[in-house]
Amino acid sequence: MAHLQVQGLHKNFDGITAVNNLSFDVRRNEISAIIGPNGAGKTTTFNLLSGVLPADRGKIFFDGNEILGLPPHAIARRGMVRTFQAVSLFDSMTVLDNVKVGCHGKAGAGLFSAALRTPGLRREEKQITKKALEALKLLGVADRAGDQAGSLPFGQQRLVDIARALASDPEMILLDEPAAGLNARETTELASLILALKNRGLTVMIIEHDMELIMEIADSIVVLDQGIKIASGPPAAIQKDPRVICAYLGDED
Amino acid sequence: MTPKRSERIKYAVFAVLIIAAPLIFTGRQSYYVSMLALAGIYAIVALGLNLLMGYAGQISLGHAAFFSIGAYTTAILSTRLGWQPLAGVVPAVAVAGFAAFVIGLPTLKLKEHYLAMATLGVGLITYSLIKADPGGITGGVTGIINIPPLAIGGFTFDSDASQFYLIWAVAFLIFALSSNIIDSRIGRALMAIHKSEVSASVLGVNVFSCKLQVFVLSGMYAGLGGFLYAHCSPMYYLNPDDVSHFVLSIKLLTMVVIGGMGSMWGALLGAVGLSILPEVLRMLGSLLHGVNTTDIEMALYGLILAVIMIASPRQRLKKLLGLDKPRRVEPPKNLEK
Amino acid sequence: MFPDQLLQFLLSGLTIGSIYALIALGFTIIYNTTGIINFAQGEFVMLGGMFMVGCTRLLHLPLPVGMLISMVAVMVVGVLIERLAIRPARHKSIVTLIIITIGVSIALKAGTAFFSKDSFTYPQFPGPGHLAIGNASLPGQSLWIIGAAGCIMAALWAFFHYTIRGKAMRACAINREAATIVGIDVERMSLLSFGLSALIGAVAGIMVTPTTQMAWYRGTELGLKGFCAVILGGMGSSPGAVIGGLLLGLLETFGNYLFSGYRDAIAFSIFLLVIFIRPQGILGRK
């Protein structure tokens, strides 16, 4: 069974159809990309998948369970996390604390045990810290753990952002233009990082404009144009699809 | 994790000051002890309000309502129903917390304006209800007199110094508990919510539940403050103008703002500072006679709030002193044990 | 309830409702243009009443002159608030802006108390003493109130639909960013919105004074009622503000008959009920 199944997803904004009757599947442990020109509805799709926006109609199954209509935090707790196009770290907090927020859903300590610093809470805090440091290590920014997040250069902020999403040990991660604003070297590093995530067993869905990156790492691609899926399949097939070429380059006639 | 060294020094200074104050102000100056005891009560409420405003980024313009609910609950139980004064703490805190829950439930899902307006309304209505006294239990404008002092195991807290120590011991405890909360999963979630609710929620934070929890907690702190006030107030007397007036809500708000939102020590200092302010004004007022100091006090709160929020003098000062550099905390090591 | 009594309640409800509608319009104009909820809105109303009382009682100016001076003075206060308190903090968080406007509101209140802590009654404005409608009677002041509210609403409607400034303000309300892009001076619109709201608030304050007592502390309560009307009608909608105001006035008047003495609690219960059941209000969009 597909890890993520989207059926007939639909979203209108004031009469403009942002996502139109969209259906696609993402198989477990594959890297799937959503591409398309600006305004194609890619980010809106992510917003619908992660529960940030309510959909007008459609169905979303994650691991076989319907998740449409659940609040964002419940979707995150079920194992699907996301990043945003604009990195928004909690910049007055330390890098480590930022990533610890990512562990929120996996921990259960309430106000009471926090106030009293019960042994259970201390154990849990230790566990959270360990998890957070592991995530930072995976992204290669563990040495910045004690820094204020806002003081980091942009490229590292992006990595912390991804580490934060990964800290809860999700099954699937949605990355919204992770290469935007990165230089060539950082982009290459990002590519190998995403492949490493796949090797760890994660399912990855990615929105990206960098075609080279997509063709290199993606197992399957969904192409959107004006909210409609115009093609889907493996990268090699997408590259040759006339509808895709047309949408990207415009009609030559 | 144990608190850092600088924090430990601050705690030590705090404890020493508490122990020393009643020993310094004796005889004719013992009036200051009861004034500072009142400051301790406000500090407890301000700490809760700071959790709400400074950390979670929500705003209450009616905390006097929760304060007066706590005060009147225990006063009614101990004067009319003959409860042991100490036993009143549970219902006082619980009723105040429940009131906060009822207000928070519909408003905290919406933008910050709604909670601000709702609390403003609750503040005004609580005040007018206590004053109108429809149930015949609050004593209306005359208030409640002869509230018994607190007693624990044969010891009665009826002197200025004993009340001072009791109040500040509670304030110290609340301070420590609140610091623990800040440095926990919930505390981090609150700060995350303050920066971006959407970012926090996609990371698994139940934004609404966190906001509601901290609002109820701050209501409970206010109820606790009210409880202490009822049993330690001068003349053991409660009236609506002292505990539920809009000005008290604004005073509490100003304590948090002046101390710097999001700083526990700041809330503490703000509470002490503003509790001393009326006294300072009274001294100045005797110089410029005929001027009503209460009006000046209120105008000052308004100006302080507006000016601090517009000009952020704290940040400017930090910049001026070169203290605005990003801080770096040593990350914990040896977790593999 | 007899039909006559019902009619009487309807008339009183519409009178006080017109005042709430004006206050609600003041909130809406500023909110739509700047995204700010102005917690000092009630103080405009209080100042309007107090300036008018001051001009006619203290300076013995004729009523029309007193009204005019009061309106201009409150407008100046509104403009100054925007310049000195709002503009320097334009890009700060919602909480910061709430604290600023509440701070300004308290300073205005305390400033007024500094001059006078009295509650002022005021005779009704010149005109017929009562107007008999069936077996119910409408006090002359109600005619003034309903008339003034009607004029303001008509003038606002014309302003928003037929003048370039008014259209620009509507554009700001629809999409502030897009408005900037097409060259609308958003800062100027913000200033205009504060001036306009202050003016409307002043009119509400002037008109309501003869039916009630005006004093330094009345602003908070009147502002809160206006906000309840905004929520009831739907945040951001001008027709909603009017409908919300009138409806709140009616509900409050009927409610006051059923549970006498709890007028303020009624408005507030409606507020909580609305945000619980339908937070977008009657005309608001989700």
* Mean residue pLDDT of chain C: 89
Identify the strand order in the major beta sheet of chain C. Answer: 1-2
Q: How would you describe the oligomerization state of the chains in this entry?
A: heterotrimer
**How do the SSEs of chain C run, as a string of H and E?**
HHHHEEHHHHHHH
Question: How far is the first residue's CA from the last residue's CA of chain B?
Answer: 15 Å
End-to-end separation of chain C = 37 Å
Instruction: Give the biggest sheet of chain C.
Output: 2 strands, antiparallel
- Backbone shape of chain B: globular
Class per helix and strand makeup of chain C:
mainly alpha
Structural commentary:
The complex is a heterotrimer of chains A (253), B (337) and C (286). With 253 residues, chain A is of the alpha/beta class. Helices cover 39% and strands 23% of the residues of chain A. Chain A is globular, with a radius of gyration of 19 Å. Chain B has helices spanning 5-24, 30-55, 63-79, 89-107, 112-132, 160-182, 185-195, 197-202, 207-232, 240-243, 246-259, 264-287, 293-311, 313-320; strands spanning 151-152, 155-156. With 286 residues, chain C is mostly helical. Chain C has 11 helices and 2 strands. Chain C has a two-stranded antiparallel sheet with strand order 1-2. The N and C termini of chain C lie far apart (37 Å). Chains in contact: A-B, B-C. Chains B and C meet through helix 4, helix 5, helix 11 and helix 13 of B and helix 4, helix 9 and helix 11 of C.
Question: What are the SSEs and their pairings?
Answer:
The complex is a heterotrimer of chains A (253), B (337) and C (286).
Chain A: E1 4-13, E2 16-26, E3 31-35, H1 42-49, E4 57-62, E5 65-66, H2 72-77, E6 80-82, H3 95-102, H4 111-116, H5 119-138, H6 154-166, E7 172-176, H7 184-199, E8 203-207, H8 211-217, E9 220-225, E10 228-233, H9 235-240, H10 242-249
Parallel strand pairs in A: 3-8, 3-9, 6-7, 7-8
Antiparallel strand pairs in A: 1-2, 1-4, 4-5, 9-10
Chain B: H1 5-24, H2 30-55, H3 63-79, H4 89-107, H5 112-132, E1 151-152, E2 155-156, H6 160-182, H7 185-195, H8 197-202, H9 207-232, H10 240-243, H11 246-259, H12 264-287, H13 293-311, H14 313-320
Antiparallel strand pairs in B: 1-2
Helix pairs in contact in B: 1-6, 2-6, 2-9, 2-11, 2-12, 3-4, 3-5, 3-9, 4-9, 7-9, 11-12, 11-13, 12-13
Chain C: H1 3-34, H2 41-58, H3 63-86, H4 94-115, E1 130-133, E2 136-139, H5 140-162, H6 164-174, H7 176-181, H8 186-208, H9 218-233, H10 238-258, H11 263-277
Antiparallel strand pairs in C: 1-2
Helix pairs in contact in C: 1-5, 1-6, 1-8, 1-9, 1-10, 2-3, 2-4, 2-8, 2-9, 3-8, 5-6, 5-8, 9-10, 9-11, 10-11
